[in-house]
Amino acid sequence: MQPASPPRTPRFHHLDAARAVFMLLGIPFHASLAFAGGHWLVMSGTRDPVLALIPPILSDFRMPGFFLIAGFFAAMLLERRARGEWLAGRAERLGLPLAFGVAVIVPLQAAILNAAPSGIVDRAAAGDALSHLWFLPTLLLLCCLLAAVWPFLGRFGSHPAPRIVTLGLAIAGYELALFVAEHVLAFDLRLAGGFLDLDALAKFLPFFAIGVALRRSPILWDRFARFDPVVAGIGLVALALHVWLWDDQSRIGIACDLIFDGLSSLCLTQTILAVLMRLVRERSESIDRLVDASFTIYLLHHPVVVGLAILCISAALPPLVSWLAICLGAFAVPYAAHRLLRHSPLALWLLNGARPKEQGWGLLVGRRATDAAA
Questions:
Q1: What is d(CA 266, CA 165) in angstroms, rounded to the nearest whole number?
Q2: Is 9 exposed, middle or buried (0-12, 13-18, 19+ CB in 10 A)?
Q3: Residues 6+ positions from 2 with CB-CB distance below 8 Å
Q4: Which pTM does this prediction carry?
Q5: Looking at the structure, do residues 152 and 170 belong to the same domain, yes or no?
Q6: CA atoms of 306 and 293, how far apart (whole Å)
Q7: Which residues, in sequence order, are bridge partners of residue 47?
Q8: Are 357 and 335 in the same domain?
Q9: Mean pLDDT for each consecutive 10-residue tract of the chain (374 residues)?
Q10: What is the rounded CA–CA span in Å between residue 58 and residue 325?
Q11: Which range of residues forms the domain containing residue 373?
């Protein structure tokens, strides 16, 4: 049986849905940090045993999956465009939201932190220029690296592709080696205020590269498209062990945690993509709305999470009730804002890096265009 190579022209509905899911999972992830007992922007001062499980679970596969999908779409677009044109598009698509976020969203969040009671917030975090936008400069750097090596990549389809578990074990070994190297180097890898984050670049480079290979290799595409209960089971067991070792600060505990984290991150990402490929086969208006809004929601959700967490902790609400309220509010407010701002080409250009398709730049441009057509 020939491997099912990725189609060259249709839209990948399941990958669009997966990208939106990975971005929207940032809401429950960040909302849980205030009640997980660790150090974050907002701290309740207690540790809820249920909410403390969310950070290690979601951090395991959420951003690895996002960077893998980003690598796939990057390769797909590079097949159609010249490198210079593609890089200019990436700079606009990622750079504009980054600039807008640094100029508007992060200062708004800092103002909320500075106005909150000092006992429940980390005021020093208000000086972080990037906050939750750290992934944008990292993704830009990965795109620059891809453009540089693109002429040398050739066709992956003629080379054998490793199995998912083998690839996961390779990621596990890589993460362990990276951890050792960082301790040997013993200096801060976040340079230029975090805009050049070598740690994040090294950590997510393999997933981005796997995404590129996924586009170029029909064999690897076929393996990622098929649900494998063995891969899913290994991923879940490794995830459980990763969660169990999350707070273990011994050398052996950290080493084992990194191994289980690397293995589970790839196995679970593959499982999620395979499941979504079965579930999301055709275009869906509701999924399209989420996909359309997911990037804006992610950009705007963080200060909403911070503000609502401060209110819930100040009101002494139970942690689970607070977490649910924060999740709902941090989705509803940015989603409503997106539904309003999507009528403005200027707003979409600034927040999503998407070029306007209509004439005019005001909030009511859609209405004006409709009135003019009438």
A1: 8
A2: exposed
A3: none
A4: 0.91
A5: yes
A6: 20
A7: 36
A8: no
A9: 48 89 96 94 93 96 96 93 92 95 96 91 87 96 95 68 93 92 78 86 96 92 94 97 91 91 96 94 85 94 97 95 98 95 87 69 42 35
A10: 19
A11: 342-374
